[in-house]
Every structure is written in C-alpha cells, then in structure tokens.
Design goal:
The complex is a heterodimer of chains A (157) and B (260). Chain A is mainly α and 157 residues long. Chain A is built from seven helices and two strands; from the N terminus they run H-E-H-E-H-H-H-H-H. Chain A starts with a helix and ends in a 42-residue tail after the last helix. Chain B has 260 residues and is an alpha+beta fold. Chain B has eight helices and twelve strands. A three-stranded mixed beta sheet of chain B has the order 11-1-12, covered by helices on one side. A three-stranded antiparallel beta sheet of chain B has the order 3-2-6, with no helix packed on it. The termini of chain B are far apart. The chains are: A mainly alpha (157), B alpha+beta (260).
Chain lengths: 157, 260
C-alpha cells in the first residue's frame, strides 16, 4: 500500500491530536457541568468569586446614622423617614475616605419622581401629595422653598 | 418438568419481572449528598408588591450605580413599567429610560417621539410594575449558551462569566423576559444577579434597599421563617409568563393579566 493513501489520514489524526491537546490546556480546570447535566448544569466555579468580590457602593441608612445623628433624627420625625439617605445623597461607598464629600442631588427632577401628581387609582402613587410640575413654580428648584428633611409645610424655610 | 417445578418457576419469573428496575439501582454517595447536603440551604427569590410601587425609579438609579452600568446608556438590569388601562379597553405601557428618572409626567411615551396624555377620568386602572431577572429554575439563557459562560449557582442565581462569554447574543434572544443586554463597556452579556455581591454578604440588593415604599423584597424560599417565603406560600402571588415553563422566581403581588 502506497503512502499517498495514508498521508491524508495521518494529517487528520495529527490535527485531531493537536486540537485535543490544545483543548486540554485551554479549557479551565473548573469548567464543566454540575447537577443538572448539559441543559442547565453549566458551571464556572472560579467565576463565583468574581461576582462575590464586586464592590458594594450603597451602604444603607445604618451606615450614616452614627456620624450624622442630627440629620438622621430630624428626618426620622417626618414622612420622609422612609427614604434611605443614599437615594438623595448618592452611594456612600467608602465615605468619608472615598469620596470625602457626597454630591447631593437637589434637583427638581428628584422630588418629582414621587411628587409629580399622577392620578393612578390602583397604585400607591395616588396616595402621595403631588403637584402639577407645569403649573407649580415651574422654573424654581423645590429646595428654594421646601426643606427635604422637614417636608411638611410648617418646615418651609 | 413436572407440574410442581413448572409452578415454582412461574412464581420465580413473575416475582422477578415485577421487581422495579429502580431496585437494582446503586445509589452513589454523591447522590445522597446532593439530596441531603448543605448545598440546598438557600434559594433566593424576589417579591414585588405592585400596589406599593409609585414609579419613583430609585431602584433603577441605585442598580445602575451599584452595578456599574453606564448611567446614560439605554440599558439597565432592572426597570419599572407603567401600565394605564383606559375605559375604552385600551392598554398603554411605557418605561422611559427604564424609569431611571422615575415617572414625572402623565404623558405616555409611545415611542418615536410621540406622547399621549390620558385624562384622569378616562383611566380604569393604572399602576407600576418593576421588572428584573427572574432567576428561573429552568433558565433558557443557560440552556442556549454555546460556550457555557452563563450558569446557575447552588442558591439559584444565574451569573455570567465575562471572561468566557463570546458575545454571541443567543441568551439575549433566548430570555423570554428581555432582561439581558450587552454591557456597553465589556461587550459581554449582562444581567441582574440579585446583587450577588450584596446578598452573599447578608445585605439586601441595591434596589430593595433604595425602595422607600417596600415594594421590592428579597428572601430565601428554603427558610420557612423568612417573611418573603411566608407571603409567597400564604398569599395570592403571580409570576410572569408561566406558560414558558421557565419557573421564574420573582413573585408579584397585584399582577394584572395585561402585564407581560
């Protein structure tokens, strides 16, 4: 038997071997399936750590209340007590080291998220005191007159 | 063969045939561990109360900042939809910018720069529905991934390995709930993961924490004392697109037929 018959065969076998060797080194050790087979069972064990180590930015009101106890106590006496500090003050991250100062959102748009009146009978939205943004002092920032930490009308500046 | 032997053998054969195949199955220690081991202590689920949601969009803002989703890109891991049903039987739904800036006008965004204002007296019912990844028990996105870059953890969260995702977009097409998108920076599939970095440290997700009204809650359905579990097991809750068989794990209070 002459080798021109076998030569392509050796080439194919060689290619398959190279692919298998390359695959052995390229595919991560933790790659594979667990539990539920090839349909839903794909698993990347080493990647779980990546997502668990993701940085936490929103620290929660409990994080703020010890240093800013005066602000915390004043807002706790108002209907705005349900709003977490970071909704308006931005995520604390590693404050006070990083960032040393938080950028407070004092925009009209922030207040209108809840206080633009929408007449939706089957939603909690209709229970909130609201204004028509086009009619109620349209060019003025809300904080010019209203104090978000004392939102009742008695707390007007 | 005499009659006695014949009857004896018949009884043996019938007895043998009637043994279930499972009786011969050898149970491996691995299987026993899988059914009783500690890996099934947690199964994260989500509960949304649509009566409480006021459409402020604080959850969307918090999610984008917490999870480093470019703030001005028109993609988001969670969003809030507004549904308005009118007295003539029409349904309007919109979610401008995913409700990142909330709903500040009664004008419905019809797309292509068109808006429609609906008068108060013409509204039958109107409400807001927050949406996020359903962390399906049978996740179609995991099933369709050709490279195995997306997977389900033991506690039920579907994650994406950014280093392994090739960006083919099959999962984005495969998700019946449309929660997946391409991350504008990494160009890989991106999705809500119930803030896995937070819940695995015992914190609430960023959206749950940012919600002033308690419309969003996260819980562990394997814990019978969890308040979320109690609501799901004892109250009337709905899920989205049940007919797809994906077994979604985000439960809704006050879900309407029109919510897709």
């Amino acid at each position: 038997m002459k080798s021109h018959i076998y030569r392509p065969l050796w080439v194919v076998i060689g290619l398959v071997c190279i692919i298998l060797i390359a695959r052995y080194f390229y595919v991560p050790k933790d790659f594979g399936v667990h539990g539920r087979g090839y349909m839903y069972g794909w698993y990347r064990e080493s990647n779980i750590k990546f997502w668990k180590d993701f940085k936490v930015k929103y620290q929660g009101t409990e994080y703020c209340k010890d240093c800013h106890s005066d602000k915390y106590e004043s807002i706790m006496a108002t209907p705005h007590a349900i709003i977490p500090c970071e909704d308006c003050h931005g995520p604390a991250s590693d404050h006070p080291s990083d960032p040393p100062k938080l950028a407070i959102d004092k925009s009209r748009g922030l207040c209108l998220r809840c206080h633009s009146a929408l007449p939706y009978p089957t939603s909690g939205r209709s229970q909130i005191r609201g204004i028509d943004p086009d009619a109620h002092n349209p060019d003025v920032e809300c904080v010019m007159c209203h104090n978000p930490h004392k939102p009742s009308l008695e707390g007007l500046k | 063969m005499n009659r006695r032997d014949f009857l004896k053998n018949t009884v043996k054969v019938i007895g043998g045939l009637s043994l279930p195949l499972a009786a011969f199955k050898i149970i491996t220690p691995k299987e026993i561990f899988a059914s009783t081991g500690d890996k099934a202590k947690t199964r994260w689920v989500f509960l949304v109360d649509t009566y409480k949601c006021v459409g402020c969009g604080m959850c969307v803002k918090a999610c984008k900042l917490e999870n480093e989703i470019p703030y001005d890109a028109n993609v988001t891991r969670t969003w809030v939809e507004r549904y308005v049903m009118t007295k003539d039987g029409k349904t309007f739904a919109d979610t401008p910018k995913g409700a990142r800036d909330g709903f500040t006008t009664s004008k419905i965004d019809l797309g292509e720069g068109k808006f429609q204002d609906i008068k108060k007296d013409f509204i039958d019912k109107a409400f807001f529905v927050p949406k996020l990844c359903n962390q399906c028990e049978n996740p179609p996105c995991v099933q369709v991934c050709p490279v195995g870059a997306t997977y389900q953890t033991d506690d039920g969260i579907v994650l994406v390995d950014r280093t392994w995702c090739i960006g083919c977009g099959y999962c984005i097409m495969g998700c019946p709930y449309g929660v997946r998108f391409f991350h504008p920076v990494y160009h890989t599939a991106e999705k809500c993961n119930f803030c896995y970095h937070r819940i695995s440290k015992g914190l609430k997700t960023a959206c749950v924490q940012a919600c002033p009204f308690g419309a969003r809650q996260i819980g562990n359905i394997k814990d019978p004392n969890d308040p979320v579990t109690k609501v799901i097991l004892t109250e009337r809750v709905g899920i989205l697109k049940e007919e797809y068989g994906t077994k979604p794990q985000v439960y809704y209070v006050g879900l309407d037929r029109e919510v897709k």
